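#help-structures
NK: newbie question, is this the right format to request a structure? protein is HDOD domain-containing protein
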Amino acid sequence: MATLNTAHDPAASLAYWRARPLPLMQATREKMLPFARRGERADPAELAEIVLHDPLLAAKVLRTANQRTRSSLASDVVSVEAVVLLYGVAPFVEHFVRGPTVEELLAKDPQRYHRYRAQVLNTRFAIRLVRDYSARRHDAHPDEVTAAAVLLGVPALLGLLADGEPDVPGSVPLERLLTAWQTPEPVLALCRERGEATPRHAMQHATLRLAHAVQRGWWQDEVTHACKAIAQVLQQTESLVWRILVGRMLEYARHEQWDSLGWPPARWLAMLPGEWPVPPPPRPPAPPRPDPLAQRLQALHLAGKQGAAANHIVSLAVHALSEGMTMRRIALILISPDGKVLRTRFTLGVPEADPLCAFELALDVPTLFARLMQKPQCLWLHGDKRVEWATMLPPLLIDQVGRDDFCAMSLFVHDKPLGMLFADRGGDAPLSEADYQSLRRICQLTCKALAETTPR
């Protein structure tokens, strides 16, 4: 029977561990907390699987359930899922996420934390392997087998927590510790190394030996002996036992975080004869893709400095909207020579039958577009703004531009309005605050470029 230490008084060690809460992993706490919000809508089995991924927490859950005050009719608890059902999902999470985490306790000893994580992964592997083979045996009480595998991993984990601590009083045999935790007798019997010679007990310990031996390599003699022992209990071929083992090894190599411990998953695979393949040279990183919006903004800036024509500047603004901001419909709407009407002059991405192509709106009516002509500015019609600006959105305007969210920016040369640019994306690609800020930048650069190229 395993012990935590071999040097001191078992009674003092029992008192030591009784006075200290068993910690949980930080990752386990983060996975459990959302279940408290989901309450009874959560799946108890899913929560139990998360707990079983943290063997010391699973041991704490079983210990707490079996040490509870109960009547003579109350039954023993051997599964984590049964404890979840006993408490209820939300109370269970609230109770068991309390207390310290392993990361907090071992924060100053990264090497010991590294060893602890490695032992957790090894224990998870052993638990999963025990469950696989017990399912093949059609065990009538698989929860007992799982609980025993969890508790047999406790000494190594507690030993790592106590390693180097000055006040650890001594050793404690695992059976004495589990008896103090009021562990049910069927589970305790499976934990005894020299228990009753039943097929169930023989396969339990052969599986644990197999899980331990395979960590040192599949070619170990103990791996072969354990596979034979399991095959005899299952009355199946050794090849079947081996296939189950290999399948579980490959799953853990792919999905568990062995690489974070410096253990490449290939450590479990066979070494093949022949030359080691030379890895291909790394591909050079792809050159960064230019930002089309940044390019168009830079072009607008240079156009003003270089004295470009006004129509070229407006063309650059249109391209900034279409290519830089992926606008669906764009319309250049200018003020008529008499200054009384806004009319569409140019469109991009607008079907011929769209009323926007023939847009016309009088400026003497107080509309949103008339307000836009008062100074260089831009606007974004969306959400609450529709209610705020409802009096400035007459049916004539909405019928011509459509009912989707849109943005618009005025075009000025110095203090004289020329017209505006209208753009939208449609309902399937709504505009964002970042899009609005990009629009403001286009508006500022366009008006600045027009002013720089046109004398007062």
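mod (FA): yep, format's fine, and the tokens are attached above. The chain has two domains: 10-268, 292-453.
NK: thank you!
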